[in-house]
Amino acid sequence: MITRIEIDGFKSFSNFQMEFAPLTIIAGTNASGKSNLFDALALLGRMVDMDLKTAFSDQRGDPSELFTRFEDGSTSKEIRFSVELLVDKTIRDNFGGEESLKYTRLRYEIQVKQTINTRGLLELNVVSESLNPIRHDDDKWVGIYIPNVTLEQWRPKVATGKRGIAYIDTENGRSINLRQDGKGGAKKEFPLNNISQAIISIVNSVDFPHALAAKEEMKGWRFLQLNANDLRQPSSYLGKDSLTHSGKNLAAVLHRISIGTPESILGITRRLNAALPSIVRIDIVDDKIGKQFVIQVKTADNREFSSRVLSEGTLRLLALCVCMYDPLFRGLLCFEEPESGVHPARMKFTAELLIDLVTDFEDADEQLQRQVIVNTHSPVLLGDIFAVNKPHVFRVWLSQMVTQISDLDGRKQKLHTTKMLPVISGEAQVGIRFAEEEKKLTLAQLAAYLNTFDSEFEPFAHA
After folding, report:
1. Whose C-alpha in 94, 271, 285, 387 is 20 to 30 A from the C-alpha of 111?
2. Pairing state of beta strands 23-27 and 370-376?
3. CB of 415 closer than 8 Å to CB of 68
4. pLDDT tens column, 146-193
5. Residue 314 in contact with residue 340, Cβ under 8 Å?
6. How many degrees, rounded to 5, is the angle at CA 219 between CA 214 and CA 225?
7. CA pseudo-torsion sign 357, 87, 215, 15
8. What is the pTM of this model?
9. For the segment 184-220, what is each residue's pLDDT rounded down to a tens digit?
10. Is 185 found in the same domain as 43?
11. Residue 382 covered by a domain
12. What are phi and psi of 380, to 5 degrees?
């Protein structure tokens, strides 16, 4: 679970910071930077798993375009990411190794610079990298979201004042050190000489348990931008049984769930029926001739329909229900515009489903870490989220594009940057301090703001 991020030098982010709840809703108009945040998370998840050139190549735009662009056409020289994480207490590797972590609250930082080599080609290198445990006394996030009665379930107790040294650190700008644990154990040293890959990306065993836990958390972040055509497709026998970012393989995921936990299909049907009472049954048809699995629903009047003819809204709600009952779904899910294709009258169901999908730290029986970040420009969804009244589970933020003046090599430059402010209801808190002029917004203020931009919205395709 990601609990905080700081970004500088990436796209529209300059000295940016934001905090995350189990469910985080980012509201704002088009071109306000909502998708840029997902891009930042996607890039970071790739950087900890592969070399920088490969990680940067599979993003929106050319690698050089990912660096913040200033008014005169120049770009930032470096990108810096800092994230704070809550990881599971136990980490396993692919070789049968298993270790219990001393710390489950970790802070990871990486700084990458761009240069042009003698052949005129872009080079990307690591400038600094670190991974540290977060001191309990400094951990404001835990105090806001996790009650004392369940705290040790998620963050093991450590003797007061005890803290290991960094698991990864940059030493005097000369080298990056990777340590086996936080007590000064065996370490590997990497000279800072054109390092083109994050050091954490080479960790693959429990010899470095905290580094592996941080890496696995970040590389496991998933992104959904559902496409109706992909959701409708049957799943080939040879296809994967995990949902793609666009919604492919939905039938295969349902088939896997039906084999492993057949009672979950009943749960999925009940949840979908709560929003769409006409649907009373969901089946996975094994099309042996076509060698594929097909989703089929039965309605209250005994008619049967395949996924090929279901509405986009129905399929999107079904995909969310499937995520809830999928035993393999854990970690972070970033979801683009869940309101798309869904009738406003069914937005309440979407809001309830999103909240039920994530980890509730007040539930003593909760075992899985599940987190969702949503971006939206729907005032209806926001109102229904607040109506659920679980402020310990969610936070809403407003994304806006603002203009600021920055100093670049002694020159004043105008920069359009993304700013996000929390929308507070009742006693809800955030751990980040804001300047006096950056007032926290109310739900009414946010709804009024979004409604002034109705002309930018695409009309709903009613389910």
Report:
1. 94
2. parallel
3. yes
4. 999 999 999 998 865 555 678 999 988 899 999 887 555 678 999 998
5. no
6. 135
7. positive
8. 0.91
9. 567 899 999 889 999 999 999 999 999 999 999 999 9
10. yes
11. no
12. -65, -45
